[in-house]
Design a protein that fits this description.
elongated; about 130 residues; 4 helices; mainly alpha
């Protein structure tokens, strides 16, 4: 399968996990900060799913040991912080402008799509780079 198609499918899977986790939190928690808690939960679950898929199927990365894998995940997360600003900007921006859950999720989906396009380049260059022998 073409790498671009595979990456797009994995981005869709991670997006579905992210938005699904948000929706589960929103349905089960109505207190103050429910929105931010749901977005953080979605971001975290989507991050883990995307890391596992990217590591194995996109970059074919094999960590030397658990410590190496942990450091790689930390760097992956750091690169994700940059793209999370894009994602959250769209999601919270749509929430502010339209004030509906559906439009907030649409903003999140748009932000994730843009963020994932940027993240591939960052991950290829900084996270899963091939180190010289």
């Amino acid at each position: 399968m073409n790498l671009t198609i595979k990456y797009a499918i994995f981005a869709l899977i991670a997006t579905a996990v992210n938005i699904g986790a948000q929706d589960i939190v929103i349905h089960n928690f109505n207190g103050p900060f429910a929105l931010i808690i749901s977005v953080i939960a979605g971001t975290g679950t989507g991050l883990v799913v995307k890391y596992i898929l990217d590591k194995r199927y996109i970059f074919r990365f094999r960590a030397k040991d658990a410590t190496h894998d942990g450091k790689t995940f930390a760097l992956y997360t750091l690169m994700g912080l940059l793209t999370t600003v894009i994602f959250w900007g769209f999601e919270f921006g749509f929430n502010f402008l339209f004030e509906t859950k559906e439009m907030r999720y649409l903003g999140g989906i748009i932000g994730l799509a843009i963020g994932y396009l940027c993240k591939y380049t960052l991950d290829k260059r900084y996270v899963f780079r091939v180190e010289p022998a």
